[in-house]
């Protein structure tokens, strides 16, 4: 019989993990503590313990063509960036299309996952689950942890002197649902991630005053990029990736700096990041809200008083009524022993972000922990495709020198060299390609150029959409070529609603010629 695999969680990663198990002939059982699928993307009015929490206005930061699973494009009439309800609808369609629900056990919490006594030879795990107050004990051949990293809020109050004196209300962004709590109040938002900026913008429509404070600053991208195309379809192409990864550091920095300051000069808005390489924040309104005085940006908090705050390098106190801490989340696996996945400094020591580095047998994998500059769906799906093949012993196995090497050096996620860290954190394309090459699903540009030049141009110059990883190799999908050639049609359909939709993609002819030469060079130099 097929290997039995436990999948923890039925969100984005859990669903694709379950599907990849089925594709490889494994037997998945997916445990989901809540009563439905969708994980992070399933909005509930109340914050539920141990579950991620959304506010109603959340819209995906990545466009639908870049956020699709590789063999299941979004319906063409869905908007280009997806409100959370529509993303959930897509996940439901995905589950239905591949008959995933029958493998999911709802209302079932994973209590513990421990190595069996004979782990060194079998690689098996003891899994204890709880449903309706009853505990059940199972044995699984392998485990895929897909519980995400947005459930345990990080609220380091000890870093904010005087918070115990503060008389007003304060809460973590996880608790935020509706802006009416800010009505007529003076609001302080601490932290400048995606949630922080979203909440500040929403609050400023009803609040008396909104201040965002950030020690680090941040690059801000708009979803609406050059000529109104979606940012990730312009930014995440193979051509751009080749340029990003072949330029020397200082030159790359000049280029990035120029690029990110094109929309507005960050320095003038008090947003210039401290660190050169930081993940950008996506928000379409922030600069105009700063420009119209609805939001003020300040440096980090020095201390809180009874009903005011003092910022670093600012002598005067600022009166405030309510604080939202947008200080992120801790990665935690309450059901795993500390020895299996060591988490330090919000990072876990995992080979390729997936396999714990010191297990004798690679039968436990963690999915979806990576923070790509781009969509998580195709990345976590590729992780699942690779992992299920490792479980079957098809690809990189533990005896391979590469894996051994990581075990010995205990390679930790956060690398001391900022450039590689930046690339790892952001260049999902390089990372996904690497995993794809492990299973033989990476598209070969040279092969395509000979067989199908039109497709090759699309693959190299166009957005690196997930369908590219279904053109060949295991899990090849017949519809992949068509999906790539029609990706711009699906992108333009929902917005070209007043004029008949023709096909257009941002690729003028002179560029094509120049690019073709570059493509040849790329092929010659073996990209």
UniProtKB/TrEMBL annotation:
<keyword id="KW-0274">FAD</keyword>
<keyword id="KW-0812">Transmembrane</keyword>
<dbReference type="GO" id="GO:0004499">
    <property type="term" value="F:N,N-dimethylaniline monooxygenase activity"/>
</dbReference>
<keyword id="KW-1133">Transmembrane helix</keyword>
<dbReference type="InterPro" id="IPR020946">
    <property type="entry name" value="Flavin_mOase-like"/>
</dbReference>
<comment type="similarity">
    <text>Belongs to the FMO family.</text>
</comment>
<dbReference type="InterPro" id="IPR036188">
    <property type="entry name" value="FAD/NAD-bd_sf"/>
</dbReference>
<dbReference type="GO" id="GO:0034899">
    <property type="term" value="F:trimethylamine monooxygenase activity"/>
</dbReference>
<keyword id="KW-0503">Monooxygenase</keyword>
<dbReference type="InterPro" id="IPR050346">
    <property type="entry name" value="FMO-like"/>
</dbReference>
<dbReference type="GO" id="GO:0050660">
    <property type="term" value="F:flavin adenine dinucleotide binding"/>
</dbReference>
<keyword id="KW-0560">Oxidoreductase</keyword>
<keyword id="KW-0285">Flavoprotein</keyword>
<protein>
    <recommendedName>
        <fullName>Flavin-containing monooxygenase 1</fullName>
        <ecNumber>1.14.13.148</ecNumber>
        <ecNumber>1.14.13.8</ecNumber>
    </recommendedName>
</protein>
<dbReference type="Pfam" id="PF00743">
    <property type="entry name" value="FMO-like"/>
</dbReference>
<comment type="function">
    <text>Broad spectrum monooxygenase that catalyzes the oxygenation of a wide variety of nitrogen- and sulfur-containing compounds including xenobiotics. Catalyzes the S-oxygenation of hypotaurine to produce taurine, an organic osmolyte involved in cell volume regulation as well as a variety of cytoprotective and developmental processes.</text>
</comment>
<keyword id="KW-0256">Endoplasmic reticulum</keyword>
<keyword id="KW-0472">Membrane</keyword>
<dbReference type="InterPro" id="IPR002253">
    <property type="entry name" value="Flavin_mOase_1"/>
</dbReference>
<keyword id="KW-0521">NADP</keyword>
<dbReference type="InterPro" id="IPR000960">
    <property type="entry name" value="Flavin_mOase"/>
</dbReference>
<dbReference type="GO" id="GO:0050661">
    <property type="term" value="F:NADP binding"/>
</dbReference>
<dbReference type="GO" id="GO:0005789">
    <property type="term" value="C:endoplasmic reticulum membrane"/>
</dbReference>
């Amino acid at each position: 019989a097929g290997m039995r695999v436990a999948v923890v969680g039925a969100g984005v990663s859990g669903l694709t993990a379950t599907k990849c198990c089925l594709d490889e002939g494994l037997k998945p059982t997916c445990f989901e503590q809540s009563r439905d699928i969708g994980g992070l993307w399933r909005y509930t009015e109340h914050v539920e313990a141990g579950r991620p929490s959304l506010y109603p206005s959340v819209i995906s930061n990545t466009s639908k063509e870049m956020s699709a699973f590789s063999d299941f494009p979004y319906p063409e009439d869905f908007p280009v960036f997806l409100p959370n309800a529509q993303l959930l609808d897509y996940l439901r369609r995905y589950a239905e299309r591949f008959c995933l629900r029958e493998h999911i056990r709802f209302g079932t919490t994973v209590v513990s996952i421990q190595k069996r006594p004979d782990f060194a030879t079998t690689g098996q795990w003891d899994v204890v689950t709880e449903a309706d107050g009853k505990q059940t004990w199972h044995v699984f051949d392998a485990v895929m942890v897909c519980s995400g990293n947005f459930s345990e809020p990080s609220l380091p109050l000890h870093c904010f002197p005087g918070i115990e004196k503060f008389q007003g209300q304060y809460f973590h962004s996880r608790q935020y649902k509706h802006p009416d709590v800010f009505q007529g109040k003076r609001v302080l938002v601490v932290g400048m991630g995606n949630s922080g900026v979203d909440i500040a913008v929403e609050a400023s429509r009803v609040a008396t005053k909104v201040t965002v404070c950030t020690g680090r600053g941040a690059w801000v991208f708009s979803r609406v990029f050059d000529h109104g195309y979606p940012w990730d379809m312009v930014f995440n192409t193979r051509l751009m990736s080749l340029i990003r990864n072949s330029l020397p550091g200082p030159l790359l920095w000049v280029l990035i700096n120029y690029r990110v300051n094109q929309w507005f000069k960050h320095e003038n808005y008090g947003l210039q990041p401290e660190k050169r390489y930081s993940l950008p924040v996506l928000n379409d309104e922030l600069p105009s809200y700063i420009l119209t005085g609805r939001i003020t940006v300040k440096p980090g908090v020095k201390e809180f008083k009874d009903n005011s705050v003092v910022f670093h390098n600012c002598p005067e106190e600022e009166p405030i009524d309510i604080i939202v801490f947008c200080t992120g989340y801790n990665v935690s696996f309450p059901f795993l022993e500390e020895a299996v996945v060591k988490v330090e400094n919000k990072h876990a020591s995992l080979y390729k972000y997936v396999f714990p580095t010191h297990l004798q047998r690679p039968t436990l994998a963690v999915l979806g922990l990576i923070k790509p500059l781009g969509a998580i769906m195709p990345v976590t799906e590729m992780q699942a495709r690779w992992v299920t093949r490792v479980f079957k012993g098809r690809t990189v196995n533990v005896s391979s020198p590469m894996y051994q090497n990581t075990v010995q050096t205990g390679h930790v996620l956060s690398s001391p060299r900022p450039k590689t860290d930046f690339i790892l954190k952001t260049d999902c394309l390089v990372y996904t390609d690497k995993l794809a090459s492990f299973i033989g699903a990476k598209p070969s540009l040279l092969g395509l150029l000979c067989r199908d030049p039109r497709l090759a141009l699309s693959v190299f110059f166009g957005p690196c959409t997930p369908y590219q990883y279904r053109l060949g190799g295991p899990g090849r999908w017949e519809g992949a070529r068509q999906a790539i050639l029609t990706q711009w049609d699906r992108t333009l359909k929902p917005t070209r609603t007043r004029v008949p939709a023709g096909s257009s993609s941002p690729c003028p002819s002179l560029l094509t010629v120049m690019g073709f030469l570059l493509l040849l060079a790329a092929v010659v130099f073996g990209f």
